[in-house]
């Protein structure tokens, strides 16, 4: 299936979870937050939450700002 | 009894935000520094206990070992204040706050700012009111960046915002407090902390905010873009303390003409 991650297309195996996605992005263990189709997916659900074809995923982190 | 001693002195109340008392009345941003090391050192020198940051997309596949802001500025040591900088609609601001809450494991203190246009980054107050209402309903504790309109400031307080943060001048302009009358009115009328957010350029601007009766000042560019940010951070710490003490001390009344400091009695000429 194909999903959008931070605006870029990405191929993932069908039914991949958010945890699988984070692992593929080599972001495991980083401080980040994930939104799927504009809804938060809490950290506690990353291993259960299955992504679907066409999902729009945002992966965000803290950066310097005022 | 002198004229000044007849006026009641302001009460020295500690700065309390979301149930926590802070020693420092200086809040700082984390943008525009040369690198993370300088960010860390400047914050240290500022004495700030509340630090604001932005939420942005993680760079995918680039610099995986780039230091994370939250590793340099630890939430264990500082009260982290995520902001909604860059948001032009209530919807985007609310989304950003929800992501920030997830990022900080449920920490619900946020700095709401909804901008109106790029040239001045002036706050869009109608969108700010909509976002504030939604965030408060959702359990966020909202510190709100706003215009220096005393009536809107009061309205935000009545809605339940826990701190009112009027701009002194446009974000990043360094112009200093442009409407001291309004800032003073807002500070005088508020029952929640009032912090000047944006517009400070140098130490005297921060001192003035405190002399006007503000409870604190939030700044970023004035420190980050100083030629020596760490020294400026220290200057700002002292400026805030000076201004606060001057406010509490109750300044002398202004006079139009001179009044000699040395006695006339005993002159021999």
TrEMBL record, chain A:
It comes from the Bacteria. InterPro entries: Beta-grasp_dom_sf, Mopterin_synth/thiamin_S_b, Thi_S, ThiS/MoaD-like. It comes from Marinobacter orientalis. It holds the Pfam family ThiS. NCBIfam families: thiS. PANTHER family: SULFUR CARRIER PROTEIN THIS (PTHR34472). This is Sulfur carrier protein ThiS.
From TrEMBL, chain B:
One of its GO terms (cellular component) is cytoplasm. Its EC number is 2.8.1.10. Its main location: cytoplasm. It holds the Pfam family ThiG. One of its GO terms (molecular function) is thiazole synthase activity. GO terms for biological process: thiamine diphosphate biosynthetic process. It is found in: Cytoplasm. It comes from the Bacteria. Keywords: Cytoplasm, Schiff base, Thiamine biosynthesis, Transferase. HAMAP family: ThiG. Homotetramer. Forms heterodimers with either ThiH or ThiS. This is Thiazole synthase. It comes from Marinobacter orientalis.
């Amino acid at each position: 299936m194909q999903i959008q991650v931070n605006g870029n297309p990405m191929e993932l195996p069908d039914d991949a979870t958010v945890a699988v996605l984070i692992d593929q992005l080599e972001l495991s263990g980083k401080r980040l937050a994930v939104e799927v189709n504009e809804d938060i997916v809490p950290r506690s659900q990353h291993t259960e939450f299955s992504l679907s074809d066409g999902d729009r995923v945002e992966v965000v982190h803290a950066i310097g700002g005022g | 009894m002198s004229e000044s001693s007849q006026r009641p002195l302001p009460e020295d109340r500690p700065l309390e935000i979301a149930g926590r008392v802070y020693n420092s009345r200086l809040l700082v941003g984390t943008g525009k520094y040369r690198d993370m090391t300088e960010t860390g050192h400047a914050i240290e020198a500022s004495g700030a206990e509340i630090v604001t940051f932005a939420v942005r997309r993680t760079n995918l596949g680039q610099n995986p070992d780039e230091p994370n802001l939250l590793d340099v500025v630890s939430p264990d040591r500082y009260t982290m204040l995520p902001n909604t900088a860059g948001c032009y609609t209530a919807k985007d601001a609310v989304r950003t706050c929800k992501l920030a809450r997830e990022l900080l494991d449920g920490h619900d203190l946020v700095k709401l700012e909804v901008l109106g246009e790029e040239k001045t980054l002036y706050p869009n107050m109608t969108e700010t009111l909509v976002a504030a209402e939604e965030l408060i309903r959702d359990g966020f504790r909202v510190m709100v960046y706003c215009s220096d309109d005393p009536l809107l400031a009061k309205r935000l307080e009545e809605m339940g915002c826990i701190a009112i943060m009027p701009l002194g001048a446009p974000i990043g302009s360094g112009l200093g407090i442009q409407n001291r009358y309004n800032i003073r009115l807002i500070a005088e009328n508020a029952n929640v902390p009032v912090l000047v957010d944006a517009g400070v350029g140098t130490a005297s601007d921060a001192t003035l905010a405190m002399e006007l009766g503000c409870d604190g000042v939030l700044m970023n560019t004035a420190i980050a873009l100083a030629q020596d940010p760490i020294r400026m951070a220290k200057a700002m710490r002292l400026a805030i303390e000076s201004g606060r003490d001057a406010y509490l001390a109750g300044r002398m009344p202004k006079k139009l003409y001179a009044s000699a400091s040395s006695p006339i009695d005993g002159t021999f000429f």
